[in-house]
Amino acid sequence: xxxxxxxxxxxxxxxxxxxxxxxxxxxxxxxxxxxxxxxxxxxxxxxxxxxxxxxxxxxxxxxxxxxxxxxxxxxxxxxxxxxxxxxxxxxxxxxxxxxxxxxxxxxxxxxxxxxxxxxxxxxxxxxxxxxxxxxxxxxxxxxxxxxxxxxxxxxxxxxxxxxxxxxxxxxxxxxxxxxxxxxxxxxxxxxxxxxxxxxxxxxxxxxxxxxxxxxxxxxxxxxxxxxxxxxxxxxxxxxxxxxxxxxxxxxxxxxxxxxxxxxxxxxxxxxxxxxxxxxxxxxxxxxxxxxxxxxxxxxxxxxxxxxxxxxxxxxxxxxxxxxxxxxxxxxxxxxxxxxxxxxxxxxxxxxxxxxxxxxxxxxxxxxxxxxxxxxxxxxxxxxxxxxxxxxxxxxxxxxxxxxxxxxxxxxxxxxxxxxxxxxxxxxxxxxxxxxxxxxxxxxxxxxxxxxxxxxxxxxxxxxxxxxxxxxxxxxxxxxxxxxxxxxxxxxxxxxxxxxxxxxxxxxxxxxxxxxxxxxxxxxxxxxxxxxxxxxxxxxxxxxxxxxxxxxxxxxxxxxxxxxxxxxxxxxxxxxxxxxxxxxxxxxxxxxxxxxxxxxxxxxxxxxxxxxxxxxxxxxxxxxxxxxxxxxxxxxxxxxxxxxxxxxxxxxxxxxxxxxxxxxxxxxxxxxxxxxxxxxxxxxxxxxxxxxxxxxxxxxxxxxxxxxxxxxxxxxxxxxxxxxxxxxxxxxxxxxxxxxxxxxxxxxxxxxxxxxxxxxxxxxxxxxxxxxxxxxxxxxxxxxxxxxxxxxxxxxxxxxxxxxxxxxxxxxxxxxxxxxxxxxxxxxxxxxxxxxxxxxxxxxxxxxxxxxxxxxxxxxxxxxxxxxxxxxxxxx
Length: 875
Description:
By secondary structure, the protein is α+β, with helices and mostly antiparallel strands. It folds into four domains: about 10-60, no CATH class; about 125-320, no CATH class; about 340-550, Deoxyribonuclease I, Chain A, CATH 3.60.10; about 630-855, Cathepsin B, Chain A (Alpha-Beta Complex). It is built from 26 helices and 25 strands. The protein has a six-stranded mixed β-sheet with strand order 9-10-8-7-18-17. Strands 11-12-13-14-16-15 form a six-stranded mixed β-sheet, with helices on one face. A five-stranded mixed β-sheet has the order 21-25-24-22-23.
């Protein structure tokens, strides 16, 4: 707040990921704070950073820290001064020097708390989660009576209480017979077996003295107090004495007040509401947790059951009938029907909470578990019994708010449709789409720092791709858009443009900060979803339920019958080629895009791009003849320098002179025209071919060979360089050609970027920058620059049950026919100019993160023209 400019408190300060915001703006924050922070503070910060670096180097994770409570049950308390006064700790003066101080206990460590929560039985867990939910979300007092065998007294407050009964005794859970007997003692309903068990534990006084740590049960409090004083005096263990400090409140003579205080000291505990004058506390033995640890002296007479008209018994009976506690929280696993059941959660470090997930009955009862912000590394072991991991994305270096994982029950069939992430600048968004039966489940994480346009663009991509595979869609995620802020309801309206409705109740809390940033959209009727409760996390989990049984299948032990293929927007199957371009103006929140400081253009979102004014290649500026004796390396080096100068000018918002780019583009085009048609026979020796592919289709592989293009962020441009001159020596020149086309056809690309929710300026920079991946905008620009279609292929589908399945031994003609029918897979075509539509296409292979060139074995190869065009706007 002090060192980073902000304007809106909610959007810029409160509802953000503070750690991620700091990392994004670390340099400017440190620069600003140096102007105000003293040298001593800076030195402290430096020492602290060095300490944290040492911790990071060791990669210490708090899940590895164990607290051995068996060695010292009171380990969490500080040992020191045994005397204290709670009023001093509260800042109140007690006006006496006769004060004994004691140390305030530490807060229980997270690991111990998590272990405690994981050890709860089902009833304890359900009740604890429900109370947690009431505390976080309720605004009324609640009165619960937890019955574990204790009695109650007749009190007017009793009418306010609701009853919840714990039916399982945890302390004696390892000796079930003993546990039942103890419970029956409290209720006065002992069986013959119970009585026999306790009588078997009767010993003589002489024998009892030989038994250490024996539990003694007396008939009166006086006998208990007398014996405890003897035992406490004999214990040589850690302990503390707590003395009560009594004082009078109100007006009155000092002599009377002193007399009252003296009299109070002589009262019995039965007359002081059970409050003793002094408590002697020492570490001693635990209760008997098994019958073998119990010893009785004398005869055992079982208690009688309560009389029919007993007041306490009647009160319990009426309470069980009229005021049993009804949970405000719904537990989906308690449904008697078998159904489709998904759990989504922003887990905020799965490595830290993996044991919480593994022990949570609600999560384990689900069909699918989708977790985001996992903070995981590839080396983390994240398996959950009964589930298979079908999608996982980890942090590459250090743990940070990043990562996603999806679990599916072992016997369920699935298909990975697409997954993608963007982590650049302040924009951070991740998603995956997985098809189960006839439903696509899209899981999303969107950073609070991402722009709304970036979120819309990615939502358009993943929903469009997913609808190419099935109509039933679920979109669930942590969107970091607080729906409690009315202006953010525009996101709900935007999702309606895809036919998706909000499936969670509006204005419900999804976080401990009482914001609603996690929710679910769907177009499926009868789908229910609501928030669950977390004992350890800031975010609430979301459960999603459908009343249908999923299709199950069994894996062959020797052969996987299903292949999971990762798609990207560039590999999508679009049923209607115009779908990607149809945007309803009603849901377009921004109708204007700034062209320069003085001019704006208003674009109808249903425009026809054919009507835009575009400079044809023949209209390009004439340039002087250049000598083509320079080799490819020199020309490519010059292209890189020109692009660097161009980027520098853009950085300072200068109006750049593009003549140099246009001139260099002409030189490159002339070189390409003089280059022969490139095949595997005349490629450069530096270009290597892949010896085998993930799934080989002989008819296709007999025509094209896949190269091993360098994976350095320039792979798209390097692949086009190979296809045009036989080597990667014109990689930067391919970038320059794309930049030149985007500059000379600015209106067209501004309109294209607007529809795809890309800022035009950002895309222009990405095209010019070294090692920055290329996408659909850049491929379209390259198609225009090279005056050829570009075909982008993905791995063929190997699942016989899929309509796009291609057999590895399919005939040549049948494969051509399948491409013509649009049932050969999600391969895409990019056609810059309509006049180039019938030209031979440049072929590339895309695996979801990397492009390789596809070189033909001979001249005039058989074309396999993809059916689908993601950008259906040739000029």
